[in-house]
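Hi, does anyone understand the following?
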Amino acid sequence: MANAAINPAALPKPQGYSHGTLSGNTLYLGGQTALDKDMKIVAGGIVEQFRQAFHNVLTTLREVGGEPGDLVSVTIYLTDLEDYQAHGKEIGIAWREMAGRSYPAMAGIGCTRLWQPEAMIEILGVAVIPAERLLPTGGPVSDGGQ
């Protein structure tokens, strides 16, 4: 089975990357920042950016029939670890609202900056989707519009 690019129409059109790559029933979720549909990073701080970035991850996951409980690994890159930790309770509430009480293997990694200078967070992950829920995809991985 060929790898398939997963690029939901609800997310900004990718240039030179894919939002996700499906290989068999494993979905590799590309790093998502807090970009909204207008290609702007949402304002309001780390909690709002977490919500948007995680929403983008879940949008890609749902595109192939996945659910939050299918996530097996999540990595969060942060430009300000202390800010994230200070808002941990609110971020935990947001996680449970969006994904329930399913918690995959996770890592939080501090970094000096992300692709968009105003981005405070980037989330990537891996999900394994049961075959009976897996939706058909649009085709093989391409050049991402380049």
Summary: The first helix runs from residue 46 to 63. The beta strands are 4-6, 20-23, 26-32, 71-78, 105-110, 121-128.
